[in-house]
UniProtKB/TrEMBL annotation:
<dbReference type="InterPro" id="IPR029063">
    <property type="entry name" value="SAM-dependent_MTases_sf"/>
</dbReference>
<dbReference type="GO" id="GO:0030735">
    <property type="term" value="F:carnosine N-methyltransferase activity"/>
</dbReference>
<dbReference type="Pfam" id="PF07942">
    <property type="entry name" value="CARME"/>
</dbReference>
<keyword id="KW-0808">Transferase</keyword>
<keyword id="KW-0489">Methyltransferase</keyword>
<keyword id="KW-0949">S-adenosyl-L-methionine</keyword>
<comment type="similarity">
    <text>Belongs to the carnosine N-methyltransferase family.</text>
</comment>
<protein>
    <recommendedName>
        <fullName>carnosine N-methyltransferase</fullName>
        <ecNumber>2.1.1.22</ecNumber>
    </recommendedName>
</protein>
<dbReference type="InterPro" id="IPR012901">
    <property type="entry name" value="CARME"/>
</dbReference>
<dbReference type="GO" id="GO:0032259">
    <property type="term" value="P:methylation"/>
</dbReference>
Length: 382
Protein backbone atom coordinates (compact mmCIF):
# COMPACT_ATOMS: atom_id res chain seq x y z
CA UNK A 1 0.00 0.00 0.00
CA UNK A 2 2.85 2.35 0.85
CA UNK A 3 4.60 1.54 -2.47
CA UNK A 4 1.36 2.26 -4.33
CA UNK A 5 1.00 5.63 -2.63
CA UNK A 6 4.63 6.47 -3.42
CA UNK A 7 4.13 5.53 -7.08
CA UNK A 8 1.02 7.71 -7.22
CA UNK A 9 3.03 10.57 -5.71
CA UNK A 10 5.70 10.13 -8.38
CA UNK A 11 3.10 10.26 -11.11
CA UNK A 12 1.53 13.38 -9.62
CA UNK A 13 4.90 15.12 -9.39
CA UNK A 14 5.88 14.12 -12.92
CA UNK A 15 2.55 15.42 -14.24
CA UNK A 16 3.28 18.81 -12.68
CA UNK A 17 6.76 18.91 -14.21
CA UNK A 18 5.15 17.99 -17.53
CA UNK A 19 2.80 20.95 -17.16
CA UNK A 20 5.84 23.27 -16.88
CA UNK A 21 7.24 21.70 -20.07
CA UNK A 22 3.93 22.03 -21.89
CA UNK A 23 3.56 25.70 -20.99
CA UNK A 24 5.62 26.89 -23.97
CA UNK A 25 3.89 25.01 -26.83
CA UNK A 26 0.47 25.44 -25.24
CA UNK A 27 0.81 29.19 -24.70
CA UNK A 28 2.33 29.80 -28.13
CA UNK A 29 -0.54 27.85 -29.65
CA UNK A 30 -3.07 30.03 -27.80
CA UNK A 31 -1.33 33.18 -29.03
CA UNK A 32 -1.30 31.78 -32.57
CA UNK A 33 -5.07 31.52 -32.30
CA UNK A 34 -5.12 35.30 -31.80
CA UNK A 35 -2.89 35.65 -34.86
CA UNK A 36 -5.22 33.45 -36.94
CA UNK A 37 -8.15 35.60 -35.85
CA UNK A 38 -6.27 38.65 -37.14
CA UNK A 39 -5.56 36.99 -40.50
CA UNK A 40 -9.22 36.00 -40.84
CA UNK A 41 -10.25 39.65 -40.91
CA UNK A 42 -10.79 41.58 -44.14
CA UNK A 43 -7.57 43.07 -45.48
CA UNK A 44 -8.83 46.59 -44.80
CA UNK A 45 -9.40 45.73 -41.14
CA UNK A 46 -5.97 44.09 -40.86
CA UNK A 47 -4.42 47.23 -42.27
CA UNK A 48 -6.21 49.40 -39.70
CA UNK A 49 -4.97 47.23 -36.82
CA UNK A 50 -1.47 47.16 -38.23
CA UNK A 51 -1.52 50.95 -38.49
CA UNK A 52 -2.34 51.54 -34.82
CA UNK A 53 0.03 54.09 -33.29
CA UNK A 54 -0.27 52.96 -29.65
CA UNK A 55 3.22 51.85 -28.52
CA UNK A 56 3.94 48.17 -27.94
CA UNK A 57 6.93 48.00 -25.57
CA UNK A 58 9.71 45.49 -25.90
CA UNK A 59 10.81 43.36 -22.94
CA UNK A 60 14.09 45.20 -22.41
CA UNK A 61 14.34 48.76 -21.17
CA UNK A 62 15.63 51.00 -23.95
CA UNK A 63 14.36 48.78 -26.76
CA UNK A 64 12.35 50.89 -29.24
CA UNK A 65 8.59 50.45 -29.00
CA UNK A 66 6.87 48.77 -31.95
CA UNK A 67 3.49 49.69 -33.43
CA UNK A 68 0.43 47.75 -34.51
CA UNK A 69 -1.56 44.73 -33.35
CA UNK A 70 0.75 42.21 -35.02
CA UNK A 71 3.73 43.62 -33.14
CA UNK A 72 1.87 43.05 -29.87
CA UNK A 73 1.38 39.38 -30.77
CA UNK A 74 5.11 39.01 -31.45
CA UNK A 75 5.90 40.63 -28.11
CA UNK A 76 3.50 38.22 -26.36
CA UNK A 77 5.37 35.32 -28.03
CA UNK A 78 8.59 36.76 -26.65
CA UNK A 79 7.16 37.02 -23.10
CA UNK A 80 5.87 33.45 -23.30
CA UNK A 81 9.37 32.23 -24.14
CA UNK A 82 10.86 34.24 -21.29
CA UNK A 83 8.34 32.75 -18.85
CA UNK A 84 9.19 29.30 -20.21
CA UNK A 85 12.89 29.92 -19.55
CA UNK A 86 12.17 30.51 -15.86
CA UNK A 87 9.85 27.50 -15.68
CA UNK A 88 12.56 25.36 -17.28
CA UNK A 89 15.06 26.49 -14.64
CA UNK A 90 12.48 25.70 -11.99
CA UNK A 91 11.79 22.23 -13.34
CA UNK A 92 15.51 21.46 -13.66
CA UNK A 93 16.20 22.57 -10.08
CA UNK A 94 13.23 20.67 -8.67
CA UNK A 95 13.42 17.45 -10.67
CA UNK A 96 14.63 15.58 -7.57
CA UNK A 97 12.25 17.44 -5.26
CA UNK A 98 11.68 15.39 -2.09
CA UNK A 99 13.57 12.54 -3.74
CA UNK A 100 10.46 11.65 -5.72
CA UNK A 101 12.00 11.78 -9.16
CA UNK A 102 15.67 11.60 -10.06
CA UNK A 103 17.26 13.36 -12.98
CA UNK A 104 17.31 10.29 -15.19
CA UNK A 105 13.50 10.28 -15.20
CA UNK A 106 13.02 14.00 -15.76
CA UNK A 107 10.10 14.61 -18.13
CA UNK A 108 10.54 11.03 -19.34
CA UNK A 109 7.39 11.04 -21.41
CA UNK A 110 8.22 14.25 -23.26
CA UNK A 111 5.63 16.89 -24.17
CA UNK A 112 2.09 15.57 -24.35
CA UNK A 113 -0.07 15.95 -27.44
CA UNK A 114 -3.12 16.92 -25.43
CA UNK A 115 -2.49 19.47 -22.71
CA UNK A 116 -4.90 19.71 -19.80
CA UNK A 117 -6.41 23.20 -19.72
CA UNK A 118 -6.87 22.74 -15.96
CA UNK A 119 -3.16 22.08 -15.44
CA UNK A 120 -2.15 24.97 -17.69
CA UNK A 121 -4.46 27.23 -15.72
CA UNK A 122 -2.62 26.10 -12.59
CA UNK A 123 0.70 26.98 -14.21
CA UNK A 124 -0.59 30.45 -15.08
CA UNK A 125 -1.94 30.81 -11.54
CA UNK A 126 1.46 29.82 -10.12
CA UNK A 127 3.13 32.54 -12.22
CA UNK A 128 0.67 35.14 -10.92
CA UNK A 129 1.13 33.80 -7.40
CA UNK A 130 4.90 34.33 -7.73
CA UNK A 131 4.16 37.97 -8.58
CA UNK A 132 1.82 38.30 -5.58
CA UNK A 133 4.02 36.65 -2.98
CA UNK A 134 7.52 37.52 -4.16
CA UNK A 135 7.20 40.59 -6.39
CA UNK A 136 7.08 44.25 -5.46
CA UNK A 137 3.78 44.50 -7.39
CA UNK A 138 2.18 42.14 -4.85
CA UNK A 139 3.30 44.09 -1.78
CA UNK A 140 0.01 45.97 -1.38
CA UNK A 141 -2.03 42.75 -1.53
CA UNK A 142 0.26 41.05 0.95
CA UNK A 143 0.14 43.96 3.34
CA UNK A 144 -3.67 44.00 3.44
CA UNK A 145 -3.96 40.39 4.59
CA UNK A 146 -0.56 39.17 5.85
CA UNK A 147 0.17 42.20 8.02
CA UNK A 148 -2.92 41.82 10.27
CA UNK A 149 -2.00 38.16 10.86
CA UNK A 150 1.64 38.84 11.69
CA UNK A 151 0.81 41.85 13.88
CA UNK A 152 -1.79 39.87 15.85
CA UNK A 153 0.81 37.21 16.65
CA UNK A 154 3.52 39.76 17.45
CA UNK A 155 1.23 41.45 19.99
CA UNK A 156 0.24 38.23 21.73
CA UNK A 157 3.28 35.97 21.29
CA UNK A 158 6.37 38.09 20.54
CA UNK A 159 9.61 36.20 19.82
CA UNK A 160 11.76 35.86 22.92
CA UNK A 161 15.45 35.27 23.48
CA UNK A 162 14.65 31.78 24.72
CA UNK A 163 12.66 29.29 22.68
CA UNK A 164 10.80 31.28 20.00
CA UNK A 165 7.10 30.48 19.56
CA UNK A 166 6.40 27.82 16.96
CA UNK A 167 4.14 29.01 14.13
CA UNK A 168 2.44 26.63 11.70
CA UNK A 169 1.17 28.05 8.38
CA UNK A 170 -1.11 25.53 6.61
CA UNK A 171 -1.86 26.19 2.96
CA UNK A 172 1.39 28.14 2.74
CA UNK A 173 1.39 28.39 -1.06
CA UNK A 174 4.72 29.87 -2.13
CA UNK A 175 5.80 30.31 1.48
CA UNK A 176 5.84 34.11 1.80
CA UNK A 177 3.69 34.39 4.94
CA UNK A 178 5.71 31.61 6.58
CA UNK A 179 8.92 33.38 5.51
CA UNK A 180 7.64 36.66 6.99
CA UNK A 181 7.09 34.92 10.34
CA UNK A 182 10.57 33.38 10.18
CA UNK A 183 12.01 36.80 9.42
CA UNK A 184 10.40 38.09 12.63
CA UNK A 185 12.25 35.41 14.60
CA UNK A 186 9.62 32.69 14.90
CA UNK A 187 10.23 28.98 14.46
CA UNK A 188 8.04 28.53 11.39
CA UNK A 189 6.78 25.69 9.25
CA UNK A 190 4.73 26.11 6.09
CA UNK A 191 2.58 23.26 4.85
CA UNK A 192 1.34 22.94 1.28
CA UNK A 193 -0.34 20.17 -0.69
CA UNK A 194 -0.13 21.33 -4.32
CA UNK A 195 3.07 20.72 -6.26
CA UNK A 196 2.08 23.67 -8.44
CA UNK A 197 2.85 25.75 -5.34
CA UNK A 198 5.57 23.62 -3.75
CA UNK A 199 7.85 23.58 -6.79
CA UNK A 200 8.08 27.38 -7.29
CA UNK A 201 8.30 27.84 -3.50
CA UNK A 202 11.23 25.40 -3.34
CA UNK A 203 12.85 27.13 -6.31
CA UNK A 204 12.53 30.69 -4.96
CA UNK A 205 13.53 29.81 -1.41
CA UNK A 206 16.50 27.66 -2.34
CA UNK A 207 17.70 28.71 -5.79
CA UNK A 208 17.98 32.46 -5.49
CA UNK A 209 21.25 34.35 -5.18
CA UNK A 210 20.11 37.92 -5.87
CA UNK A 211 17.06 40.12 -5.44
CA UNK A 212 15.00 40.38 -8.67
CA UNK A 213 16.92 37.48 -10.16
CA UNK A 214 14.02 36.09 -12.21
CA UNK A 215 11.78 38.10 -14.55
CA UNK A 216 8.24 36.93 -15.27
CA UNK A 217 5.35 38.25 -17.34
CA UNK A 218 2.27 37.07 -15.45
CA UNK A 219 -0.43 39.02 -17.28
CA UNK A 220 0.02 38.06 -20.93
CA UNK A 221 -2.41 35.16 -21.03
CA UNK A 222 -5.58 37.20 -21.48
CA UNK A 223 -6.21 40.06 -23.86
CA UNK A 224 -9.22 41.43 -21.97
CA UNK A 225 -9.68 44.54 -19.83
CA UNK A 226 -6.38 46.30 -20.54
CA UNK A 227 -5.87 50.05 -20.75
CA UNK A 228 -2.57 49.73 -22.64
CA UNK A 229 -0.29 47.09 -24.10
CA UNK A 230 2.33 48.14 -21.53
CA UNK A 231 -0.03 47.04 -18.74
CA UNK A 232 -0.50 43.63 -20.30
CA UNK A 233 3.19 43.12 -21.10
CA UNK A 234 4.66 44.46 -17.85
CA UNK A 235 7.43 42.45 -16.17
CA UNK A 236 7.54 41.33 -12.55
CA UNK A 237 10.93 40.61 -11.00
CA UNK A 238 11.15 38.07 -8.19
CA UNK A 239 12.04 37.75 -5.41
CA UNK A 240 11.77 41.24 -3.91
CA UNK A 241 13.65 40.04 -0.83
CA UNK A 242 16.45 37.50 -0.69
CA UNK A 243 15.38 34.38 1.26
CA UNK A 244 18.96 33.89 2.42
CA UNK A 245 18.67 37.02 4.60
CA UNK A 246 17.32 34.69 7.29
CA UNK A 247 19.80 33.99 10.04
CA UNK A 248 21.41 30.57 9.57
CA UNK A 249 20.02 29.53 12.96
CA UNK A 250 16.44 30.37 11.97
CA UNK A 251 14.17 27.33 12.13
CA UNK A 252 12.15 27.63 8.91
CA UNK A 253 10.83 24.72 6.88
CA UNK A 254 8.23 23.78 4.29
CA UNK A 255 6.41 20.44 4.51
CA UNK A 256 4.61 18.80 1.59
CA UNK A 257 1.36 16.97 2.17
CA UNK A 258 -2.34 17.28 2.85
CA UNK A 259 -2.95 19.21 6.08
CA UNK A 260 -5.08 16.62 7.87
CA UNK A 261 -2.87 13.68 6.86
CA UNK A 262 0.31 15.42 8.02
CA UNK A 263 -0.85 17.07 11.24
CA UNK A 264 -3.46 14.69 12.64
CA UNK A 265 -0.58 12.46 13.74
CA UNK A 266 0.04 11.89 17.43
CA UNK A 267 3.49 13.51 17.35
CA UNK A 268 1.94 16.81 16.21
CA UNK A 269 -0.42 17.15 19.17
CA UNK A 270 0.23 20.36 21.04
CA UNK A 271 3.42 20.92 19.02
CA UNK A 272 2.59 24.44 17.75
CA UNK A 273 2.03 27.64 19.71
CA UNK A 274 0.28 29.42 16.83
CA UNK A 275 -1.60 28.31 13.72
CA UNK A 276 -1.83 31.05 11.08
CA UNK A 277 -4.25 30.40 8.21
CA UNK A 278 -4.66 32.74 5.24
CA UNK A 279 -7.11 32.02 2.41
CA UNK A 280 -6.99 28.41 3.59
CA UNK A 281 -9.95 27.07 5.54
CA UNK A 282 -12.21 27.07 2.45
CA UNK A 283 -9.92 24.45 0.87
CA UNK A 284 -11.54 21.89 3.18
CA UNK A 285 -13.97 19.28 1.96
CA UNK A 286 -14.90 18.87 5.62
CA UNK A 287 -14.22 22.06 7.57
CA UNK A 288 -15.05 20.27 10.83
CA UNK A 289 -12.01 18.01 10.38
CA UNK A 290 -9.82 21.07 9.80
CA UNK A 291 -11.12 22.54 13.07
CA UNK A 292 -10.32 19.31 14.89
CA UNK A 293 -6.76 19.21 13.58
CA UNK A 294 -6.13 22.88 14.37
CA UNK A 295 -7.32 22.21 17.90
CA UNK A 296 -5.10 19.13 18.14
CA UNK A 297 -1.84 20.79 17.11
CA UNK A 298 -2.27 23.63 19.62
CA UNK A 299 -1.78 23.38 23.39
CA UNK A 300 -4.41 24.89 25.65
CA UNK A 301 -3.76 28.63 25.43
CA UNK A 302 -2.44 28.37 21.85
CA UNK A 303 -3.58 30.84 19.21
CA UNK A 304 -5.31 30.40 15.88
CA UNK A 305 -5.19 33.49 13.64
CA UNK A 306 -7.22 33.35 10.45
CA UNK A 307 -7.91 35.64 7.50
CA UNK A 308 -9.76 34.82 4.32
CA UNK A 309 -13.07 34.33 2.53
CA UNK A 310 -15.22 31.21 2.26
CA UNK A 311 -14.78 30.31 -1.41
CA UNK A 312 -15.33 26.59 -0.91
CA UNK A 313 -12.93 24.99 -3.37
CA UNK A 314 -14.75 21.67 -3.74
CA UNK A 315 -18.31 22.99 -3.94
CA UNK A 316 -18.78 21.65 -7.47
CA UNK A 317 -16.56 18.59 -7.05
CA UNK A 318 -18.22 15.17 -7.47
CA UNK A 319 -16.79 14.10 -4.09
CA UNK A 320 -18.58 15.01 -0.89
CA UNK A 321 -18.07 18.59 0.27
CA UNK A 322 -19.71 20.67 3.00
CA UNK A 323 -20.14 24.41 2.45
CA UNK A 324 -20.95 26.54 5.48
CA UNK A 325 -21.77 30.19 5.95
CA UNK A 326 -19.56 32.38 8.11
CA UNK A 327 -22.30 32.43 10.74
CA UNK A 328 -22.28 28.62 10.86
CA UNK A 329 -18.47 28.43 11.08
CA UNK A 330 -18.39 30.92 13.94
CA UNK A 331 -21.07 28.98 15.79
CA UNK A 332 -18.94 25.83 15.57
CA UNK A 333 -15.75 27.36 17.00
CA UNK A 334 -16.69 27.04 20.74
CA UNK A 335 -17.70 23.42 20.16
CA UNK A 336 -14.17 22.72 18.90
CA UNK A 337 -12.53 24.29 21.94
CA UNK A 338 -11.91 27.85 20.68
CA UNK A 339 -12.70 31.15 22.33
CA UNK A 340 -12.90 34.23 20.12
CA UNK A 341 -10.55 37.06 21.13
CA UNK A 342 -10.89 39.33 18.12
CA UNK A 343 -13.00 39.35 14.98
CA UNK A 344 -13.43 41.87 12.18
CA UNK A 345 -13.85 42.20 8.44
CA UNK A 346 -10.79 43.30 6.49
CA UNK A 347 -10.95 45.89 3.74
CA UNK A 348 -12.03 44.67 0.28
CA UNK A 349 -9.04 43.30 -1.59
CA UNK A 350 -7.92 41.36 -4.63
CA UNK A 351 -6.06 38.06 -4.67
CA UNK A 352 -3.45 37.78 -7.43
CA UNK A 353 -5.07 40.91 -8.79
CA UNK A 354 -3.85 42.42 -12.05
CA UNK A 355 -2.46 45.96 -11.82
CA UNK A 356 -4.21 48.53 -14.04
CA UNK A 357 -6.83 46.06 -15.23
CA UNK A 358 -10.39 47.20 -15.94
CA UNK A 359 -11.69 44.21 -13.96
CA UNK A 360 -11.08 43.34 -10.30
CA UNK A 361 -12.58 40.55 -8.22
CA UNK A 362 -12.73 41.75 -4.61
CA UNK A 363 -12.88 39.66 -1.45
CA UNK A 364 -13.92 41.01 1.94
CA UNK A 365 -12.02 38.55 4.14
CA UNK A 366 -12.99 37.83 7.70
CA UNK A 367 -10.22 38.07 10.28
CA UNK A 368 -10.20 36.47 13.70
CA UNK A 369 -7.95 35.51 16.58
CA UNK A 370 -9.06 32.50 18.62
CA UNK A 371 -7.51 31.01 21.72
CA UNK A 372 -7.72 27.29 22.42
CA UNK A 373 -9.39 26.82 25.80
CA UNK A 374 -9.84 23.05 25.85
CA UNK A 375 -8.94 19.89 23.97
CA UNK A 376 -11.40 18.35 21.54
CA UNK A 377 -11.54 14.66 20.67
CA UNK A 378 -11.45 13.94 16.95
CA UNK A 379 -14.39 12.08 15.45
CA UNK A 380 -13.40 8.68 14.02
CA UNK A 381 -13.00 8.46 10.25
CA UNK A 382 -15.97 7.11 8.31
Amino acid sequence: MQDEAWHEEQQHFQAVLQAWSDYLPYSLHMNNARRQSLYALPQAHQALLQGLHAPVPGPMEGKPAQRGFRAKLYEIDDRIRRNADVLEQMAHFCHSFLGILDESHQAASGPTNKVSERDQDRVRTAIKQMARDWGAQGAAERERVYQPIVEAVLRRRPPSEGRPPRVLVPGAGLGRLAFDFAQQGYCTQGNEFSYFMLIPAHFLLNCTQTVHEHTLFPYIHSGSNWHTSADMLQPVCVPDVLPSVLDENTDFSMVAGEFVEVYAKEEERGAWDVVATCFFIDTAKNILRYLEVINAVLPVGGLWVNAGPLLWHFEHDPDASVELTLEEVLELLPHFGFEMEEQRTLEPQTYTGIPNSMLSHLYTPVFWVCRKVRDHTMAPAV
